[in-house]
Amino acid sequence: MNQRKDTYRAALRREPDTAAPRHAKVARLHTRYVRVTIELDPALPRELGRWVGPPVSALLRAGAAALRPLTGTS
């Protein structure tokens, strides 16, 4: 049991091998039993804009088309 615990703790202390330099934003959470690393890609805003842009513009066009007859009859 102690050997397994020591192996686990050694694995937590060990840093991962990285060949390429990191350009991402990194947030780390270290507690006694949990170690979490979150990396955000710097191109994330561009990718979100590419994926979200067309549906949002379609919704805006549909909303404008629906409101056009309502505003024209007053």
What this model shows, in words?
The model has no long low-confidence stretch (mean pLDDT 77). The protein has a two-stranded antiparallel ribbon. Helices cover 55% and strands 16% of the residues. The protein is of the alpha+beta class. It contains two helices and two strands; from the N terminus they run αββα. The longest helix is centred in the last third of the chain and has 29 residues. It has one domain.
Properties at a glance:
74 residues, alpha+beta, 55% helix
Number of E-type strands: 2
**Going across the major beta sheet, what is the strand order?**
1-2
Structural class per helix/strand content?
Answer: alpha+beta
Largest sheet: 2 strands, antiparallel
**SSE ordering:** HEEH
Radius of gyration: 25 Å
Uncertain residue ranges: none
- What is the count of distinct domains? 1
Helicity level: 55-70%
Average pLDDT rating: 77
Principal-axes geometry comes out as: rod-shaped
Query: Helical segment tally?
Result: 2
State which percent range the strand residues make up: 15-25%
Distance between the termini: 80 Å
